[in-house]
Recover the amino acids of this structure.
């Protein structure tokens, strides 16, 4: 959510932001509704002030004048009674429009409609040259009895899966490795709720835009698609001490996404599933663009360190305007090389929001001059599995179907160098 004062004073900037993000939003409609909101609020406030004044005067007049004052107050009450429902309708429309105002992209964000228009800005690592035809993770994992899609679908429906055996252990090793890495960098570890209230998703900016991609229960609560949602709500409504900033969290949770609009994309295997696990970096910092940019690069570099320590070739892309969410100022995607598809596939995204989320969640701090300011927020996927797992399996596969364990993960796999058995000739 943006400051309404900023919106009133800069409608052309909001219009530009909507156009760059390819979001249908009428800023003039919001400004007109805002004028009505102010007008009705002032009229009701004036009537209430008059009502309070008459209430005081009644105690000071004779019985004849008292009756006149009572009648006068009744008329004022009636006017308020008529105005309040209209004001509530205006307020509801104003709130709904405010929730749809797009944040302003950074000037460095390129133009474009979707992820095909994202721009590569960094490439790292040598793609492995196999002396055999590499197999995809599905064939390898099914041959090793590491995954069961048939029973997964029987149990949970489309894109369901069971992860088994040494693959499940390697998956857990990845989480342990990630948690230790980020805690060593000063991040506070947290295991956070997946089931969250609607207000929590509104606050973090996943509603209303992301409604179609969310699961919800019969009570109206939702299953979050990222640990960022609950982590951002941790300090909702609170005032932080400036000396305690930045706040850095590494949060773990199960995640759920419908993958709306993804039908026909990566239907087979573990690339795009409805339920997965995720370690998420979340930072709350001072209200400074320079601080946000600094931490954005830092969080992105930490995720790149993981790919480099595991020797997984990757590239970084800067997302175009059409591939930004409602609240994102700028976003990078980290994509790891996938041998079976001969292309890079996304393993995480790194974003900053300025005060878009924290204004909704009312997370503030008191500046040196005593002024209350909204903190800035950032997040970045540290590691998401099973997607990261299958990148390891495909890049570290051997001709016989065994998988060499990256050296950085061996301490979490009892020192083993390989998993699996020889299943291919």
């Amino acid at each position: 959510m943006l400051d309404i004062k900023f919106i009133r004073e800069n409608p052309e900037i909001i219009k530009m932001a909507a156009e760059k993000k390819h979001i249908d939003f009428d800023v003039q409609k919001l400004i007109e509704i805002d004028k009505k909101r102010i007008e009705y609020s002032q009229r009701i406030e004036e009537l209430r002030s008059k009502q309070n004044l008459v209430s005081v005067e009644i105690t000071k007049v004779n019985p004849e004048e008292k009756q006149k004052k009572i009648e006068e107050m009744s008329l004022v009450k009636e006017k308020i009674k008529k105005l309040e429902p209209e004001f509530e309708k205006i307020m509801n429309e104003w709130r709904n429009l405010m929730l749809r105002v797009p944040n302003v992209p950074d000037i460095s964000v390129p133009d474009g409609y979707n992820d095909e228009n994202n721009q590569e800005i960094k490439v790292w690592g040598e793609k492995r040259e196999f002396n055999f035809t590499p197999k995809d993770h599905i064939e390898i994992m099914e041959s090793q009895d590491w995954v069961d899609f048939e029973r997964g679908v029987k149990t949970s429906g489309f894109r369901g899966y069971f992860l088994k055996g040494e693959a499940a252990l390697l998956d857990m090793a990845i989480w342990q490795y990630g948690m230790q890495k980020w805690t060593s960098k000063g991040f506070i570890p947290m295991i956070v709720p997946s089931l969250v209230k609607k207000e929590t998703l509104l606050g973090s900016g996943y509603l209303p835009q992301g409604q179609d991609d969310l699961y919800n229960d019969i009570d109206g609560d939702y299953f979050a698609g990222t640990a960022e949602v609950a982590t951002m709500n941790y300090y909702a409504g609170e005032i932080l001490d400036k000396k305690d900033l930045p706040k850095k969290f590494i949060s773990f949770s199960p995640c759920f996404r419908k993958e709306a609009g993804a039908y026909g994309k990566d239907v087979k295997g573990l690339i795009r599933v409805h339920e997965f696990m995720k370690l998420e970096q979340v930072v709350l910092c001072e209200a400074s663009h320079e601080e946000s940019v600094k931490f954005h690069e830092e969080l992105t570099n930490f995720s790149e360190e993981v790919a480099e320590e595991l020797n997984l070739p990757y590239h970084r892309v800067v997302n175009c305007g059409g591939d930004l969410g409602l609240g994102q100022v700028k976003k990078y995607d980290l994509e790891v090389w996938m041998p079976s598809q001969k292309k890079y596939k996304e393993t995480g995204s790194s974003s900053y929001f300025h005060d878009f989320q924290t204004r909704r969640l009312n997370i503030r701090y008191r500046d040196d001059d005593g002024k209350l300011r909204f903190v800035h927020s950032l997040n970045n996927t540290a590691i998401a599995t099973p997607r990261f797992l299958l990148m390891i399996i495909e890049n570290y596969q051997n001709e016989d179907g065994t998988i060499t364990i990256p050296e950085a993960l061996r301490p979490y796999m009892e020192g083993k160098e390989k998993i699996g058995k020889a299943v291919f000739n």
